[in-house]
Amino acid sequence: MNTTRKIMSVSMILLLAIFAVFLVSLNMGTMKIPLAEVIKAFNGTGSEQNYTVLMHFRLPRMVIAILIGAGIAVSGAILQSVSRNALADPGILGINSGAGLAVVLYIFYFQGSSFSSGIWSVYIMPFAALVGAFLAAFLIYSIAWKQGVTPIRLVLVGIGINAAFGALIIVFQLMMDPNNFMQATIWLSGSIWGASWEYVAAILPWILLLIPWAVYKSQHLNVLNLGDHTAAGLGVTVERERRTLLFISVALAGACVAVGGGIAFLGLVAPHLARKLVGPRHQGMLPVSALLGSLVLLVADMIGKNLMAPSEIPVGLVVSCLGAPYFIYLLIKD
Known about the structure:
Blueprint: H1 3-27, H2 35-43, H3 48-83, H4 95-110, H5 119-144, H6 151-174, H7 178-189, H8 197-216, H9 218-224, H10 228-233, H11 238-260, H12 266-278, H13 282-306, H14 315-333
Helix pairs in contact: 1-13, 2-3, 3-8, 3-11, 3-12, 3-13, 4-5, 4-6, 4-7, 4-11, 5-6, 5-11, 8-11, 8-13, 12-13, 13-14
């Protein structure tokens, strides 16, 4: 089987799997809705209650899971290639913790003000997370710069910044009142339970712009994997391309974390599985990573909302439980 046909076959299988999980997840939850009733709700012959549950709660949540899963997976794939580190992930390199610190500061200083209620709450907190992710990336890149940025310095500085921001998050959480502490903890754990169509509209442009841009840059990612000297010899402006690709990765991770909270390990696991399925060339690996990320997050969300129903487990914790053993396996293997 040639590479193109293999990529198409794997993509079709993953799309079918996503569709199947999507249908099952529509039926499952605290309120069970049979498939026949789901169809009736969408064609206008079902009950108003079923329509409300599906259209205003479950459907936007699952669309958000698909978008976030794809974005984080592609972000992780780019980071692994740019840093030439198979264990790189937005959650490990400090991008998620930068977004998390910004959200914790927002909750700490603005909770109870006009910025934390009504229409403002839908946009301000995600915007704060996005700004935090970019500031973290800028700080990492600035500290790692020494006549250029080497992949190993980028990774080491990222890990250090992640630890520092994690400590600051704990400090501010300990100064919060119980309600704010719980809100921050749920967000940091990675939760999409409050997703709505407003959040879909907020994240969709980022995904539609940045993932195709990343795929367009696939050839540069392939060349950067060969090393800086080889890439420069082949005519690639290494620092400029690295900055561009890091911007794409951080923007994707920041936008996804802004809506879904701190979801770790997904950006690590999905690219690795994609490489095993279709090989290392980014033209096929990036789209397959996106599909795998969507599938994994959909499954994790379904497990989280049904395993201990009516209580919910944050999807970020489920992904961590699934991804941490794989991370340890990769660490031992390497």
